[in-house]
Fold Os01g0964800 protein.
Amino acid sequence: RTAFPTPAYGRGRRLCLASSAPLSFLFGSAGSRTRSRGCAAGLVGIDPRRARPPVTPASSDFSILNQPCYSFNSSSWRSDVINMHTKGASSDVIRVSTSSAPSTSSHGSAQDDCDSSGDVYVWGEVICDNSVRTGSDTVVRSTVRTDVLRPKPLESNLVLDAYHVDCGVKHSALVTKNGEVFTWGEESGGRLGHGSREDSIHPRLIESLAVCNVDIVACGEFHTCAVTTAGELYTWGDGTHNVGLLGHGKDVSHWIPKRIAGALEGLAVAYVSCGTWHTALITTMGQLFTFGDGTFGVLGHGNRESISCPKEVESLSGLKTISVACGVWHTAAIVEVIVTQSSSSISSGKLFTWGDGDKHRLGHGDKEPRLKPTCVASLIDYDFHRIACGHSLTVGLTTSGKVLSMGNTVYGQLGNPRSDGKIPCLVEEIVGENVVQVACGSYHVAVLTIKSEVFTWGKGANGRLGHGDIEDRKIPTLVEALRDRSVRHIACGANFTAAICQHKWVSGAEQSQCASCRQPFGFTRKRHNCHNCGLVHCNACTSRKAVRAALAPNPAKPYRVCDSCFLKLNNAVDSSAIS
């Protein structure tokens, strides 16, 4: 398993627009707004891991590069865009949203360190144990959500080597380097995938996926998705909302993962993004499919109808979609087109948005909804390759590492205090940082730079920004607690954030007291590194040895570990023996 490679699906076959494709198709027209939904929350998108077997795309008005085709001249295209006027019907319906909706785009990061272990750090509003002992033999188990103001290691009863993580509203999921899926958080409607109604404060293995070798996961508010290395898509969670949320054609809940067949037979899925009420996926050939609630045209099929099975977005058929992210009531995608500059033709990623245009989240300069994918004209000069969506926010990442945002400004989530949000703006404070990943929560943003530094901004409630307080930030601010952690991946939930950091030893010289008993080191209290967590402990707290230690030169042999890790490792061995 290779950690976080660049997308490689459809390798060697670039797509371009044929002469029969009119410009008006790309930039579309506005539609009228319709019904609204109350409490909503949206989430996440993810990236492909490796090339899949080639699949023949559906026929359309577009042609593949190895056939005769015509491409855009950059200067004439830009002129046509500037002179274009989109028309939309007026709307009498006022949309009221009380959602706390996250939406993340969790793509590959700067680090490609295959051999190092990955630790998950979390901050913001997280789930904790609130069990109370009522008698000598009675324990009342419950959970509570608490605010964590700075990044802290995710507590786990098992030794996890995290490869990918994603966050929902009240639950999260991670994938290990072995392709196993663990979920934790508040259970509701089956979104944890364990077949039970119990909350899980610690990551718990989804046993039904243990034989599938999963690459990536995505978390919505009510459901969860997973993509395997074979290109299969599994979904599970609460499917009783009559919108086809799980993509199986029926409005029933699935408490354990179920593979989506039907329209996806013969196709290999590369990555998936979960919104609150809808889901979008990309195949290895760059085809875009959506399903779920079609309110505001969020599915991109030219209407507002809900769809209970994956359906290809026909207006992008024949083009290669390279990234997609779902908000609550809007969707954004990066689509590759061929642009002619002088005598050469180059591929360039253009930003398309559709769905609810309220709060200017679509970037088209108005609040009108779009029923089909529409290119953001003001950003036509940029080459995008990553995208993330928040509640009323869209954030794009260019191939040169620049970040552009559009949408609501209420908490400073645009990252540019001078912007009114009506048109896309550049996040100027991090122009020179070379960003490699972007992620959005409900009202906050996190980015990861090529130097493995994390910057956050937007709403600070619950400590979701990781700066040790609950203050809002209107400009990107470095998360100091992660400065030396070699961050490899980030993800945002509704009001919390997660990061995968490279597992490192802690130098004894950097620590003056035992990490377990907190007693100061001295002549009789010597320092010892735990071969599992890497922290420095005294000899009394590292008196035992265990196999399978994460940092051991030979995992098959026993090495000195701290008492806490000894119990975790023994539990892991016992669990393996039972299974």
Observations:
- The two ends are 24 Å apart (CA to CA).
- Confidence is low (pLDDT under 50) at residues 1-25, 29-101, 106-114.
- The chain has two domains: 15-82+99-502, 508-578.
- Residues 352 and 371 are 12 Å apart (CA to CA).
